[in-house]
Amino acid sequence: MTGFYDEIKASSGMYKFYSNGEWMESTSGKGVSILNPASNESVYQVQACTQKEVDSVFEAAKKAQKAWARTPLWKRAEYLHKVDGIMKDNAQPMADALMNEVAKGAKDSLTEVIRSGDLIAYTAEEGVRYLGEGMLLNSDSFPGQDRSKLCMASKVPLGVVLCIPPFNYPVNLAVSKIAPALMAGNTVVIKPPTQGAVAATHMVQAFHKAGVPPGVINLVTGRGSEIGDYLTTHALVNCISFTGGDTGLSICKKAGMVPIQMELGGKDVCIVCEDADLELTAKNIIKGGFSYSGQRCTAVKLVLVLESVADKLVSMVSKQVDGLSVGKPEDNCTITPVISKSSADFIEGLVKDAEAKGAKLMQKYRREGNLIWPVLLDHVTPEMRLAWEEPFGPVVPVVRVKTVEEAIDHCNANNLALQGCVFSRDIDQAIRVSDAMETGTVQINGAPARGPDHFPFQGFRDSGIGSQGIKNSLAMMVKTKTTVLNLKTPSYTLG
Ligand SMILES: NC(=O)C1=CN([C@@H]2O[C@H](COP(=O)(O)OP(=O)(O)OC[C@H]3O[C@@H](n4cnc5c(N)ncnc54)[C@H](OP(=O)(O)O)[C@@H]3O)[C@@H](O)[C@H]2O)C=CC1
Ligand SMILES: O=C(O)[C@H](O)COP(=O)(O)O
């Protein structure tokens, strides 16, 4: 009996890429190793696709696009609902891959797959209504015009959408791009993050098994540093949807006349006012700052607390940091090894810089390989890198401020402006602070978060271009087409 995922793997053990409805091996004969973050040893291999294979994948996507766009909207929705069911029925191997290649906790890995199925289903539902709606305009609303023109505006697909997600949500941040793109009648080329590529490969099999026609969804693998530029500057790309770090800034500079959706890094601040509920705040700093070892663009990455409540808050948070579980993803630990040695070195550099400049470490700094024990740093000052840079690790710095204005100024001085949060019992004050914070989202009395996935999600300044969230992503994946009906005589002339 053959298993659901058998065909995605070659006899060599290397995972295949997916082009024009077929699982294939690269003619390069080369693989890219995926390292298990816990051991730094190779756990999987994916194909190192060649430029010629990238060309053929784009050609397949372009060729399939017209017929896909002509497939009725309800039918495209039907395919997506099928994918949702198939993904959930075959979730465990996909979740296992996540655990092995990005060291996400076992339970959270499964949650990512289920959440992704839900996202696909919601996109199908939202899409049939939103994409089916257009606009009708009569000419006589504009000065000097009579009613002799009827303008019909509708939403049409962009063409081929290139989707590039990051390592921390290789499945969820892939489908958040793929589902709206497909629903809107586009075809898709995905380039998954190298760490996370096997989970993404499993995910594509759900589309294949749902019978999505050849060429509609395609997957190429290889290191971003090797094939990334070739992909993003390819002549057949009609839209780029990217989530990741600074790479996004350079993609923006290189990409030509194509719409771009960018979700980049964050330095999400948590402003704690004097009247904040400190228990609630501490709980949210822990959840927001340390879940998945702080490797979330929406993680709390800086606490800006009013001096009068700082001692109490730091002590409450610090106690909870001491209690966090540290270890293996298989054991569902909150703190697991960070994605790579270079990432662990970078995080360590930030901690050492702060320590050398006088920050107080509330926990002894400890690291074994890529596993970094969680640490809260008090008395961080603006001279320290940690006050401005994104660690993407289990490290939360605390800056003590004299006024709420000082906290807002710090927040707005950073080029990263994804999310932020404010804690106060006074809702009027919280709204004033929220309005003053120039970030894509502000959470009041809760930690930053992207979900639920239908909420608009966007970064200001260097944190992004455009907005995600299911409806906004559907809007991103279409262009407006108008058809004007010119009448011989103005309407309303009879009767
Ligand atoms: N705002 C948001 O929604 C989110 C932002 N992020 C941010 O992402 C970063 C961490 O994720 P990480 O995966 O390390 O980010 P990277 O920017 O390093 O990588 C993101 C993706 O880009 C690919 N890539 C690398 N080089 C190129 C290139 N030249 N052209 C095209 N694609 C390329 C990577 O492939 P490969 O792996 O092969 O190098 C990967 O698929 C953090 O800064 C984090 O804040 C993360 C999640 C959400
Ligand atoms: O990649 C990220 O970090 C996410 O976009 C954050 O998603 P979450 O807030 O749902 O964890």
From TrEMBL:
Pfam families: Aldedh (PF00171). It catalyses: D-glyceraldehyde 3-phosphate + NADP(+) + H2O = (2R)-3-phosphoglycerate + NADPH + 2 H(+). It comes from the Eukaryota. InterPro entries: Ald_DH/histidinol_DH, Ald_DH_C, Ald_DH_CS_CYS, Ald_DH_CS_GLU, Ald_DH_N, Aldehyde_DH_dom, ALDH-related_metabolic_enz. The active site is at 263. SUPFAM superfamilies: ALDH-like. Keywords: Oxidoreductase. It is an enzyme of class 1 (oxidoreductase). Residues 23-482 form the Aldehyde dehydrogenase domain. Its EC number is 1.2.1.9. Belongs to the aldehyde dehydrogenase family. This is NADP-dependent glyceraldehyde-3-phosphate dehydrogenase. It comes from Coccomyxa viridis.
